[in-house]
Amino acid sequence: MGLFTTFFKIGLFTIGGGYAMIPIIEAEVVDRHKWVSKEEFLDLIAIAQSCPGVFAANISIFIGYKLRKVPGAVITCLGTCLPSFLIILALAMFFHTFQDNPVVASIFRGIRPAVVALIAVPTFNLAKSANITWSTCWIPIAGALAIWLLGVSPILIILMAAIGGYVYGALIKPTE
Predict the structure, then answer these.
(1) What distances in angstroms separate CA 161 from CA 13, 50, 58, 138, one per listed residue?
(2) Which of 16, 54, 99, 152 is the most exposed place for a label (fewest CB within 10 A)?
């Protein structure tokens, strides 16, 4: 299956946004096609999170570029974004006719908890893959609480984590 087709299929399941797509992307690009390793995929997630733009599009661009340079990046990005664009266009054309329908409102209320689950599962899987242990789980928890309760900028959290990782890797735990 080609790059465009694979990422178009991934793009069809954007319910919940980019984070909900992580298991689908991983299944396709790591497990099925073996375009990147599990370790490379974790690195791509970290890079995609720290770059501006749509998370899933960022990952698709990085993978497309790795495989086919600029044409691959364009094709994978189009494949990821086109389904969402077409679905949103169709919804926008007809939404005014059913926006006040109680059945539709109930459907959207039912979808919300499912979206939370779609985001929670990859979060726990990523924590496992990143070797987050009981001794290190305080780091993401402290970062989330600082953002949520104290209003700390996520950019500051990312910068502090990068500096902390550098200091730990370079000074505290030298590589062999």
Answers:
(1) 31, 11, 21, 12
(2) 99
Q: Identify the pLDDT of residue 18.
A: 67
Mean pLDDT, rounded, for 153-169: 89
CA distances from 36 to 32, 43, 45, 82, 157 (A): 10, 10, 12, 23, 27
Greatest distance between any 2 Cα atoms in the chain: 65
CA atoms within 13 A on the CB side of 142: 10
Full-model pTM: 0.63
For the chain, give the mean pLDDT.
86
Q: Which residue has the higher pLDDT, 154 or 94?
A: 154
Distance between terminal CA atoms of the chain? 41
